[in-house]
Amino acid sequence: MSGTAVLRETGHFFAFCLDTLRGLGRRPVQVREFVQQAWFISSVSILPAALVSIPFGAVIALQLGSLVRQLGAQSFTGAASVLAVVREAGPIVTALVIAGAGGSAICADLGSRRIREELDAMQVLGIDPIHRLVVPRVLASMLVAVLLNGLVSVVGVSGGYLFNVVMQGGTPGAYLASFQALGQLPDLLVGEVKALLFGAAAALIASYKGMTAKGGPKGVGDAVNQSVVLTFMALFALNFVVTAVYFQVVPQKGS
């Protein structure tokens, strides 16, 4: 793809995002579609997220436990593990599951509607596909991402705690005390804000690629692959920006 085509595609995507943002304030609110999409995304995301978060928390506890022992700071193992899960691992795992499971389904659904010309038929009937289909999916993805991030954080922290105490011989009191010494409420809030933004980005990219799919069933498959790859790239870039802003704005406890 040439540089001009990339710029054109980027411009179309931002115009699509603005149309979606404008559709958030329009009436009537598509409550039924929102509930259906929230239920669908939850049903395909909860179990994979829970299963991934357990080994994720254990690996973080293992890596950080070994590192802090080398540095002679075993008493801070709990704080390092919990903060790593709540600030970074929880939102990232949530975003990857939402993008891989929910986003691919959204892209395939809208892409199928595109090649069946259902979206064109809706426009002929005076129905805005963005307001009717995209807005409920974006809101549902954001809601599920926030709730799923809480679940992933709890499961990941619990897995890290059990791994540290049972497998690495850590003490429960030191694990919890170190977290209370360094952790703070904004750490949890920034994780939820990340999950909210990741959920919106995953749904927007999947919806855009689905609604612009071309070339029949093969084009829909290509759009799904592209949406997953682009979502992963966007999420990691967005994570870097939010993390950098957070460390500049919120003073860290104990610093």
Observed structural traits:
mainly alpha, 0% strand, elongated
Global shape: elongated
Low-confidence stretches: none
> How many beta-strand segments?
0
Percent of residues in β-strands: under 5%
Number of helices: 8
Helix content: over 70%
Distance between the termini: 47 Å
Radius of gyration: 21 Å
Biggest sheet record:
none
**What structural category do the secondary elements indicate?**
mainly alpha
Q: What is the typical, i.e. mean, pLDDT?
A: 82
Pattern of helices and strands? HHHHHHHH
Would you give an account of this structure?
This protein has 255 residues and is mainly alpha-helical. 85% of the residues lie in helices and 0% in strands. It is built from eight helices and no strands. The protein has helices at residues 3-23, 31-70, 77-115, 118-124, 129-167, 172-182, 185-211, 216-249. The protein is elongated. It starts with a helix and ends in a 6-residue tail after the last helix.
Short description, anyone?
By secondary structure, the protein is mainly α. The protein has helices at about 5-25, 30-70, 75-115, 120-125, 130-165, 170-180, 185-210, 215-250.
Show the helix and strand layout.
Blueprint: H1 3-23, H2 31-70, H3 77-115, H4 118-124, H5 129-167, H6 172-182, H7 185-211, H8 216-249
Helix pairs in contact: 1-5, 2-3, 2-5, 3-5, 3-6, 3-7, 3-8, 5-7, 7-8
